[in-house]
Amino acid sequence: MAKKQNVKFNGVEIELGGEIYVLPPLPIKAFSKGDASKKIQHIQSEFMKMNDNNNSFNISQESISDLVSLVTMALARNYPQINEDIVEEGCKDIMFLFSLFQHLITQSEEMNKRIEEMQKNALRAFVEKKESQN
């Protein structure tokens, strides 16, 4: 494993392809001049669909591409040479990519609140569904 590098932006240490990187939050520019909000909403809507379909794993190629794009945008703050190919090759599997996405959005307090609310709603819906089946 590579030694941690000095970085411009703090974040979560992650391992991609045997190298250690620091994954910072997404830059404001990704929201103000980019389409980060749209990508995040699209990914979250697919996660909600998975919850509605009894956690069946069905995520679109577009969402996977969006996940890679968002992670790459964030990593580029500390590693300008990084590209989507490096991120795709470095990810162990799709669940690891999802965990990177969670790190991205949970570094924001507002996003933490929204995720908590989504989790509560998903749990509430699950409990209500189970109770109605009994």
Summarize it:
This protein has 6 helices and 2 strands, in the order E-E-H-H-H-H-H-H. By secondary structure, it is mostly helical. Helix 2 packs across helix 3 (61-75) and helix 3 packs across helix 5 (94-106).
Task: Describe the 3D structure.
The chain has a two-stranded antiparallel sheet. The longest helix is centred in the last third of the chain and has 25 residues. It has one domain. The protein is mainly alpha-helical and 134 residues long.
Detail the topology: elements first, then pairings.
Layout: E1 12-16, E2 19-23, H1 28-32, H2 36-52, H3 61-75, H4 84-90, H5 94-106, H6 109-133
Antiparallel strand pairs: 1-2
Output the keywords.
two-stranded antiparallel sheet; single chain; mainly alpha; 134 residues; 7% strand; elongated
Query: How many distinct helices?
Result: 6
The residue fraction in helices comes out at 55-70%
- Report the order of strands and helices: EEHHHHHH
Structural class: mainly alpha
Q: How large is the radius of gyration? A: 16 Å
The spatial strand order of the largest sheet comes to 1-2
Query: Which word captures the global form?
Result: elongated
Strand content: 5-15%
Q: For the residues shown, what is the average pLDDT?
A: 81
Terminal residue distance: 51 Å
Which stretches are low in confidence, meaning pLDDT under 50 for 5 or more residues running?
none
Biggest beta sheet attributes: 2 strands, antiparallel
Number of distinct beta strands? 2
What's the oligomerization state?
single chain
Number of domains: 1
